[in-house]
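Continuing the batch. This is chain 6 of the set; chains 1 through 5 are on the previous pages. Same settings as before, nothing changed between runs. Recording input and output for traceability.
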Amino acid sequence: MELAEDKETRNRLIEQNRGLVFYIASQYGHSVDESDELAGAGMLGLIKAADTFRPEKKLKFATYAVPCIRNEILMLLRRNKKHKRDISMNSIVGADEDGNELHLSDILGTEPGVVARRSEEEADREMLLSAINSLPERERILIVLLYGLDRQGCDGRTQMEVGRRLGISGSYVSRIRKHALQHLRREYMRLAE
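Output for chain 6:
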């Protein structure tokens, strides 16, 4: 009988907190498909939270569940990011003077030095990504959001938007940003040597 009650409580916790998963997933997703995928990962985090939650710890379930949900979403984002580095001839590499998309296949060998310049830019980009990945998780997320690194061809978000997304004040975003940029400069210079 005790096991059935625990299972019933677990299922009730999951059902009552599904909205929390969708709310957190919407903070990280930019399209409906992406948000749905993130919500699936978040539901896994919610289930793990329900399985490991101990009411005797005097902690609200939602407070306990939020980090579990975020961790699963962030793990999915990290896995997906590894796959985004794959390059194909149809990869968008920029835009021409008229704003039309340029694909890798459009520019390879079209004029002297283009491939060499692109290779240098790609090496710089890889060093920057490596430096960004060396940041602590919160700083990394903040830099990615501030500078629009999660959205190709888009501007970054304001400090206030990032603060709302991360649940911190705009002034705290500014302090974290300053510290993160100092770390990035040092790491980038180290990698460039």
